[in-house]
Protein: Phosphoribosyl-ATP pyrophosphatase
Amino acid sequence: MIEAAADGSGAQALDHAARPPHCPSMSSPDTLARLEATIAERRLASPDTSYVAKLTAKGVEKIAQKVGEEATETVIAALTGSSSALVGEAADLLFHMMVLLGEKGVPFADVLAELDRREGVSGIAEKAARPKD
Ligand SMILES: N=c1c2ncn([C@@H]3O[C@H](COP(=O)(O)OP(=O)(O)OP(=O)(O)O)[C@@H](O)[C@H]3O)c2ncn1[C@@H]1O[C@H](COP(=O)(O)O)[C@@H](O)[C@H]1O
Structure:
């Protein structure tokens, strides 16, 4: 199914039907939802046996720092690394982002809802519609 952009411009057409059902990206939301549940559980574990608990014990500043580090490593992998290196760094980034959301009490569903809200709205059109200072 092709969806036209919400502003009618046709600038951002989405073809959901063209994506094969076995495509790994289709299962990503489930994977992240499971990871969110695991992180919520492991936050309460011993820092001796759980990386999530160990990182959580260091506080939000450390968790946010890790997100920044993993983002930088993802950029480096994209520019200089292999595809598999990029996959690894992107996974590290998503994992640490999930730990940060958990620390801040922000449900992953809220992030997905925000992406849903943006769906079909061109980034070009959205930026152009922002109030001018
Ligand atoms: N997806 C992950 C995951 N991805 C990366 N990591 C860990 O993230 C850490 C990042 O490595 P770094 O070298 O950057 O960090 P570091 O050296 O420990 O930290 P610094 O003090 O140097 O900043 C490593 O220890 C990785 O093993 C993860 N640890 C856990 N998970 C998931 O979380 C679940 C719970 O894990 P535990 O809490 O450890 O039981 C696991 O079953 C997984 O599903």
Summary: The longest helix spans residues 60-80.
